[in-house]
Please model this.
Amino acid sequence: MIITMKTNASEHDINNVVDKINTLGLKAHISAGTQRTIIGVIGEGNHDHQHTLRSMASVENVIPIAKPYKIVARTSHPQTTIIDIKGIPLGGEQIQVISGPCSVETPEQMTASADAVKEAGCRLMRGGAYKPRTSPYSFQGHGVDGLKMFRDAANQYGLPIVTELMDVRELDNFMKHNVDVIQIGTRNMQNFDLLKEVGKTKVPVILKRGIAATVKEWILAAEYIAASGNHNIIFCERGVRSFETAYRNMLDITAIPYLKQETHLPVIVDPSHAGGYAWMVPALSRAAIAAGADGLLVESHPIPNEAWSDAEQALSPAELSQLMQELSAVAQAMGRTI
Amino acid sequence: MIITMKTNASEHDINNVVDKINTLGLKAHISAGTQRTIIGVIGEGNHDHQHTLRSMASVENVIPIAKPYKIVARTSHPQTTIIDIKGIPLGGEQIQVISGPCSVETPEQMTASADAVKEAGCRLMRGGAYKPRTSPYSFQGHGVDGLKMFRDAANQYGLPIVTELMDVRELDNFMKHNVDVIQIGTRNMQNFDLLKEVGKTKVPVILKRGIAATVKEWILAAEYIAASGNHNIIFCERGVRSFETAYRNMLDITAIPYLKQETHLPVIVDPSHAGGYAWMVPALSRAAIAAGADGLLVESHPIPNEAWSDAEQALSPAELSQLMQELSAVAQAMGRTI
Amino acid sequence: MIITMKTNASEHDINNVVDKINTLGLKAHISAGTQRTIIGVIGEGNHDHQHTLRSMASVENVIPIAKPYKIVARTSHPQTTIIDIKGIPLGGEQIQVISGPCSVETPEQMTASADAVKEAGCRLMRGGAYKPRTSPYSFQGHGVDGLKMFRDAANQYGLPIVTELMDVRELDNFMKHNVDVIQIGTRNMQNFDLLKEVGKTKVPVILKRGIAATVKEWILAAEYIAASGNHNIIFCERGVRSFETAYRNMLDITAIPYLKQETHLPVIVDPSHAGGYAWMVPALSRAAIAAGADGLLVESHPIPNEAWSDAEQALSPAELSQLMQELSAVAQAMGRTI
Amino acid sequence: MIITMKTNASEHDINNVVDKINTLGLKAHISAGTQRTIIGVIGEGNHDHQHTLRSMASVENVIPIAKPYKIVARTSHPQTTIIDIKGIPLGGEQIQVISGPCSVETPEQMTASADAVKEAGCRLMRGGAYKPRTSPYSFQGHGVDGLKMFRDAANQYGLPIVTELMDVRELDNFMKHNVDVIQIGTRNMQNFDLLKEVGKTKVPVILKRGIAATVKEWILAAEYIAASGNHNIIFCERGVRSFETAYRNMLDITAIPYLKQETHLPVIVDPSHAGGYAWMVPALSRAAIAAGADGLLVESHPIPNEAWSDAEQALSPAELSQLMQELSAVAQAMGRTI
Model:
């Protein structure tokens, strides 16, 4: 890190800062400018050290230089990671579209969903058994019964399943029902105890971006999982909160190339929650693939109008098939397949 | 709710929407305008119903009318709630300043902190035993050992304690050590399982606003706690994420009068996390009281420069005492005491 | 518009609101619900009328229904508009990439720029003679001398020119030098006097989105130009301000399909100002085309490292050529050409 | 500024950067760390220089150190500036509340407004003759006729007038009618030609913050005015755009202490546009004064419900008088008068 002293800092002030740096186990390199002194700090240091130094009255600012993430950083692992999900590669040349309903509702709905997902050419299925809902009066999901329904329907079609974990106490149920990919939702991106627990498994994790998380915070959330031992992490951009009210969220398309540069992990996009309306999904999906995304998480429902939740953003089976065709052309333009 | 049909909707389309409304157990009231038809929906309806209706092709928009929160709404409970914390009232004429360090570090630091908090005239103490940290490489808190240190130090000075709960599995420890006020942090405002669990206790809860939560989402998070049976809820505004980088967060001062109008619950403000720098705390604290806040949550440390975390935003004992004096004048201008 | 009355509104209150509606030349349609009365207002009404009604003490809310824009709305002009720029179509099957330097610097730089732009296969050239700079101490542009240099260089290569107008008093110079497309910059999106003046010409206008303008405000800014008589308007999305600091702005990719649905006008994207770094431009450009954009505005410079402004976001001639090839494949996937 | 090189930068790369620094007329100070080299740049440098250096492939980042503003900075002028407006001081011990209607409507309305403003104890009057309206179909103001009506009404009560200038071509009219304070509105904060023109006069200028302007950009906009020769500048915080939809804008209360520290100029607050509803104005006004604001800009109207614009945010004469009494107590708590 670099410390810029206030313009009126005295030699005594500077010595105090240097002493503090030494106390923290770091070394100082002083550079006296015409207007102010700048102190380079040699050695790692962490967020807490920065705060400590910034709290000194003679310090103007403390500027971190080193990236705070390590395991997930591309600098520490230049090769792109491809994650194996029951034999299906995510992060390689083949793009994966994960589809299915917002909520697990009934066995019939799940079978019809799985059928449509398979039919459209998708290789992985999503569905929510535990539902994070803004209102306590909305449908909260079927819980473990939903997990079973989902597992049964997906098994019929040989589809690995992706579903959201909200509560550490349910992880055992996830393991018992062989959930293939654990999704950490937007509201739990910084639920650090949950991150640590899924980090102790080897199950691939989709880590959705927090509603207003910076990319740096998001990568550090992944670092929590990685630091606990699980390196099978997939970033999922799903739109961030903005001032714009014409759509549900604002899809941050720039996050895709940025993450691909900063980390070695796969990046997928959820166009359904980003836009919030089914008619926006094709354009956002094409854009995501063209920007370099490795996959998509797309909500679909056998009969969208009868969905118990998020009805207006679900694609019908026909719309999902149509989307897969459109995306095929874009994937080809990117030198990839779908 | 109100449904606005597209301008080109046919009578057939309108009948379909009316049928769907009836299927949902609600009633329709049609109002044909010159340009478009508007359908008033009589009966409650919820978020899911709105999504279902919005998913119909002939529907332009669905506009909710009723407020989605009930128990915490002032309309359902016009009288202002005063919460009793071990005999100390929060939400009444007397303003409460809750102070203490970011992290519980050592028994000595906690005793010195408690001494300074008491000496300054505060009646409640804060401190973090479990720490939500952006980086896995920052100090994560002492956990249950920290709880004990905190409890011991506060008991010497007769100060009720406020501390953050991050993980449902730790709630038993909180009950065992008689935590007087449970804090739900910014990152867990929509950790619904955690909200439900603290809702099953009767312990007062400080519910911090999510980093980019709308006031409506925040009130609904409180409704989760209330719906589980615990009505002792205190809102804590702590700044929201914005485009401005000159301060840590943007204190949303308008949330104070808005919450006081919409709900019957107390509202406090955390000026330390809002501004991020100790020198900003006095101005933000005065503004909060002048806007109608019932209390403050202020970080202080016996020796800020030696704090293990958030050093640059902690007040020294002298600064805390000085703040209490300044606030006394503002409280008086508001017809209150401190 | 629709008026929702407060739950405690009396019959007297309702009559007062109805009287006010009549005074404004509109008609009321009362719908008494179980909890509250809703009043539909028949007739147009405008923003000021909404404010007036919302100011009545018994009114809970006023909800506009009709779209506030007319001439530029697709509902009033279902056919997609193709704008003719000196024989080059913008908005049709052929995608246009407009390129050139941030600032007009020297005749040599402009000639080299024009050569590179033409060579890469672009059909239109951009360049700034009048520069809106955040600091008064940054290069402010050559002004009318810059216009001349630009015109001369572009003429050699038969390229129509796009350049920014900041001050109404310079419009005569723009007309005199036959500027082919007038750009209204981000900071002037709501400079209404400027919009009215360019609205009196027939010169095509690129209207950049304000740094934090909603899509609705942006469309209304276009409506200002259209209402003054000039319908040759091109929307340009260039990223909006957000909390994210890893890139210069956040490209709002969703704005593209949204604008294409709401209006009949062409939409282009400026990936250079959106990302702020040259290395991000290809990914953002591909995404924009895949989302349905009709063109791009891309900064390039003969020697980026010697650019007088925005050096880090300019493409070199080789990078521009490479970009055009990549985009060709994406355009093809969209059934378009470039 | 400080340059951080990429970790893989070679000695050749470093030499290239040093050469470029020398070419720009600056000097380099190399500091080789264990992981990367850091180059301190001695000498001023500006935004363009930063961009140039950041465009070099071996450069990781360029970090500005010096503040980009000079004349308005407190470091260059430690004493607080008090601006004299026809004998009324703004920025000193006495707080100024500037009030009046959104729009100049009729001579009768202006006389009644002036009467109410004077009666409430305010010493300055506001009113809009030229109106920046989001929609071209809203009332656009009476223009120069409005200026005359305003001047006449204010003269009867000896009130200096504050009114908004939108178009450089109208500045002569402002001078002719002796406008006492020129307001630069939110949408024109970065209309640099307008800033330069008002900078050539000596008339005090209220510079409203852009809807999503950072404090740094805002101060630089003031620097434009100052650099043209006019140092009579008053900052006006009026709320910024945010994700929150419950209020019109989000009042950034933290900007007040921040600006008071960074600059020597007065800061006022517009609570009317910030909140957007008359009932929020008292709480926001009290908070502004308690945070250290030197004044307020408050919309009032003889009969709010009949206002031609912004009706729901205008205070009635009785509410304005009541506000002045409330503020008197808060001013006293701050050691000031009103």
User: Anything to note?
Assistant: Residues 83-333 of chain D form a domain with the TIM Barrel fold (CATH 3.20.20.70).
